[in-house]
Design brief:
Layout lengths: L1 E3 L5 E3 L8 E7 L4 H4 L13 H17 L5 E4 L3 H14 L7 E2 L22 H4 L8 H18 L4 E6 L1 H12 L17 E6 L4 E7 L4 E4 L1
Parallel strand pairs: 3-6, 4-5, 4-6
Antiparallel strand pairs: 1-2, 3-7, 7-8, 8-9
């Protein structure tokens, strides 16, 4: 059930009947627009060669650290789909069973998509773009995405291939803290992996240190 906290953001709560589960959040690999510091949003920009290599490395390490997954969900954008497919190969998961999850699509930046700049996560900049998804809208969608995943895949191990903005919102929802959106405060590198662990009582959040091959609690 969702409820609004005192700062107007939603704090995620789970039903007590929900079984233990693991959700692995995988941010897509690098694109040329990442290099050029452009708002990608919902424009369908593909991974570049380095982005594919990043995901191959991340997925190989993840495969060493977990006992496989029961489901793989992906944003419908091609950079996330390629990420999901590459991860499936490394995890021994049948790519035909990858499921589309539109709620995990990247934040829409409206007329800002394609614009380059050094302040991509400045909300005052984003607010100027007609058609951009507001922060409140993004937070509510992240809540819905998390609720859907927790309800439909309770008791399972699930990998989600998605994007920086929506995954930051999901992490903030689980952590139950004031929403921190600035890139420098909640940085999600290309190909990074987070683990949301539910033990039938509460959520725990870990980030994968790909270099040390260790989970570090957040």
């Amino acid at each position: 059930m969702m409820q609004y906290n005192k700062i107007g953001r939603t704090a995620f709560e789970v039903k007590q009947s929900m079984q233990s589960m693991n959700i692995y959040l995988l941010r897509h690999g690098e694109t040329d627009w990442n290099i050029e510091k452009r708002f990608q949003g919902q424009r369908d920009i593909p991974l570049n060669a380095n982005g594919i290599s990043q995901i191959e490395k991340s997925a190989e390490i993840l495969a060493e650290m977990i006992d496989g997954v029961d489901h793989i969900l992906t944003s419908p954008l091609c950079r996330a789909q390629k990420t999901a497919q590459t991860a499936a190969d490394k995890l021994g998961f049948d790519k035909k069973n990858i499921e589309m999850a539109p709620l995990f699509i990247e934040r829409a930046f409206g007329e800002g998509e394609g614009v380059a700049g050094d302040d991509l996560w400045d909300e005052t900049v984003i607010a100027q773009f007609q058609g951009a998804e507001t922060l409140d809208e993004l937070c509510c969608r992240a809540q819905a995405a998390l609720q859907m995943t927790a309800k439909e895949y309770s008791g399972k191990n699930v990998l989600v291939a998605a994007h920086g903005a929506i995954l930051r919102a999901v992490l903030a929802a689980v952590l139950g803290r004031q929403f921190v959106y600035e890139e420098k405060k909640m940085k999600l590198e290309s190909g990074c992996v987070h683990w949301l662990q539910y033990d039938s009582v509460s959520w725990k959040v870990y980030k994968c240190d790909l270099g040390e091959k260790q989970w570090k609690k957040i």
